[in-house]
Amino acid sequence: MSEETDAQNVSESLHKVRQVEFEAALEAALNCASPNDVMKLIPYSGFIGAQASVVDGRARYWLDARVSNIGNPSLPAIHGGVIGGFLELSVLVELLFCLETSAFPKVIDFSLDYLRPARYQTLYAHCQILRQGKQVVNAAATAWQDDIKTPVATARGHFLIH
Amino acid sequence: MAFNVKTALLKPALKLAMERSGHGRQLGIDITHVSGGHVRLAYSYDPQAVGNPLTGVIHGGVILSLLDICCGCAAMTAMQELSIAPTIDLRLDYMQPAKPEKPVLASGNVYRTTSSVIFCRGSAWQDDEDDPIAHCVATFMRLSAPQMSIGSVIRTGIQGLFPAGKDRG
User: Fewer beta carbons within 10 Å, N or C terminal of chain A?
Assistant: First the structure.
């Protein structure tokens, strides 16, 4: 019994340490107004190679062309799952960046429309928070390559923020 | 059921095309079951794909990729002539967070095929199939363009096994 409680205490204190470290890193990133620093806190961003910057006062996210992100090698086109993951990550960073909440947003649902094949080149995205309630946020994201007027994919999702 | 070359080649063809190239290779998926309109795969936990650094839970994008692959492959196997099926839309509901350090299993099923669209359902779970972590519905285009054939995907997949240049990923 004591071993179990010890293990639980260790895992709880580890979680607290992580929480404190994460909040400090998030605050530092927000103080620098750097969405890329927020992005770097999430390991998945490195897995797909997503980055962020501020363009015209608004966060812009991008995904460099990488062999490991290809879904259909015969075109080649970027994997639909990667586009979805990238948009979900972008919305998550946008929420951490724009909302004053220390709770890590949890995704409830995410809906994607694929409009064109995403060619093997840089993919850009921006996000929009459509409604912020007490518990749930509704947000949308658009991904494009050459021209913002010809989007590759759009997404919409709900996130829990309490 | 009579022996059919197409169904016999389906699993190795999809395994080669999906597991050995591009994002399937990056994820490290294992396609465990392929039959007409039904595909299952397994994914082992990877700390690089974590979405919540506080809890170590993998990012939703990984689940999304797994289900897109599962449903996409299921859609490909539901067609008369084997070809690529691009995703039109996909909706994903997250029922509960995935437990860290544990593998994720996923399955994709075709429930309706029309002349131009294929409708799929998919789910992902860890311990119990009846207690899923996520559920999705997705629709796919039915294409039969020659450049989209599974043969060309396999050829490119084989080329990908022996890359001439340095892998940028």
Answer: N
Which residue range forms the structural domain that includes residue B111? 5-161
Domain count, chain B: 1
Cβ neighbours of B89 in A, within 8 Å: 111-114
Residue-wise pLDDT for A81-126, tens only, equals 999 999 999 999 999 988 877 688 999 999 999 999 999 999 999 9
What residue in A sits closest to B95 (Cα-Cα)? A108
Cβ atoms of residues B120 and B111 within 8 Å: yes
Q: Which amino acid is at B120?
A: C
- The shortest C-alpha distance from A57 to chain B (Å) reads 26
CATH of the domain at B131: 3.10.129.10
Q: Taking the model in full, what pTM does it have?
A: 0.87
B137 within a domain of the structure (yes/no): yes
How many other CB atoms are found less than 10 A from the CB of residue A121? 11
Give the number of other Cβ atoms within 10 Å of residue B49's Cβ.
Answer: 22
Please give the CATH topology (third level) of the domain spanning A33-160: Thiol Ester Dehydrase; Chain A (3.10.129)
Q: Nearest Cβ partner of B61 from A49, A88, A104?
A: A88
CA dihedral B28, B34, B36, B38 (to 10 degrees): -60
Q: H/E element holding A132?
A: strand A123-132
Rounded to two decimals, the ipTM of the complex is 0.87
**Domain contains B27:** yes
